Amino acid sequence: MTTTTWHERAAALNADGRAFIDGWRVDARSGLCFDSLSPVDGRKLAEVARCDVLDVDLAVTAARRAFEDRRWAGKPPAERKRILIRFADLMLAHRDELALLETMDMGKPIRYSRSVDVQLAQNCIRWYGEATDKIYDQVAPTSEDSLALIQREPVGVVAAVIPWNYPMLMAAWKIGPALAAGNSVVLKPSEKAPLSSLRLAELALEAGVPAGVFNVLPGYGDEAGKALALHMDVDCIGFTGSTRVGKQILQMAGQSNLKRAWTELGGKSANIVCADCPDLDAAVESAIGSIYFNQGESCNAPSRLFVEESIREAFLDKALKLIPRHAPGDPLDEETVMGAIVDQTQMKTVLGYIEEGKSAGARLLAGGAAARQESGGLYIEPTLFDGVDGSMRIAREEIFGPVLSVLSFTDLDEAIKQANSTPYGLAAAVWTRDMSKAIRASRALRAGTVHVNQYDNDDITVPFGGYKQSGNGRDKSLHAFDKYTELKTTWIQV
User: Fold this and answer.
1) Are 19 and 26 in contact (CB under 8 A)?
2) Average pLDDT, stretch 393-402?
3) In 10 A of CB 266, how many CB atoms?
4) pTM as predicted
5) Which residues are identified as catalytic?
6) Strand, helix or coil at 85?
7) E-assigned strands of 276-423?
């Protein structure tokens, strides 16, 4: 599709911002709404329902009713499988529509919304659909006079609260395993990017997911999100977002009904490049591409780059030549690889960190300023700091923007120590041709995923999550079923 065509479709976009409860699009009970403004060019996309405790109660009641009458949980696994695969098929059939909603709502390039976000999201739904009738229960090895059955059962009503950086994919990571296991779901997307989640609910209903089983409530975190976390009839809450809010979610889960609370939180991932890196060009390409992908708005972005001192100058020379490729452009142009920052608040935050880095004495080698201001949108140049000290805020705190901090090292053990000197533990990487060194480094790095001689390779079959204050539990893979199921033992005396 041409850039002109995407702009024409964007101009004709008529997004529906109403909530989706019990199979229907509805306004918030209060009648309140808020404007969804596109970071691409500042245009108004929709008036979005500002759901609060009243709407949460309606949605949770609908989800509970659907769970208790077993309209979904009671279906044979093969039937749930068929419906979820149909859901994935519909996502593919509506790929362009979903991609456009994603790009206009949160600013990422259309090339990635279409080829990455929609593709991975539908694959997630499809994979969990396929897994539905392949999860077996167990028989415990008890004595001959007894039979102990260990069965997985759906936990009940699942609340899912997701962020704005990958709205469609984060929704799929939550609803895929939750629905496959037989739960009912109430999804609360970020108020910054709710539109694709609302459309997914309609497609799920069309695919055959019964009304009440999948509900979507747009709204603010301190209103709708808080109400879900405190609701006494929500059995489980899955949250992806900041560590600060994750702590609040855990506290509210304990204050209410002690609901199970699973969190995937912030990160400050370390990318360690040793002098014996097998391919320096590949390491540079990966480091630059990974930090600036999705405008740096990724929880696992490798924002701390540790380069062995003997190759630092060569590495930086190559990196500075690549950075212009990632200059922000029109997100509706399929050649663009870096788009817009999600909103003014995040724009101000990122620019504030850049100023902080300069004030602290880091050397600004590239970027550092707003861009494309004539567009009416929100854009920041790809930014690179050298001479960063581990005590600086830009090396310690999650920026969530296109900012790379370079730190040098002469001893790998010291680099690993610095890499671990953060409250986060989501991802890390090490580049070396010595596999023994790589294995030792992987064992020492306190992170949920450690990449070796690459960064961000991924697949639905592997779990994703973090150590320390990067959260608990795992998304993706069969391990995700652990979050949305209960284990029941039935002991039979023979």
Assistant:
1) yes
2) 97
3) 23
4) 0.97
5) 264, 299
6) helix
7) 304-308, 363-366, 370-371, 379-380, 383-386, 403-409
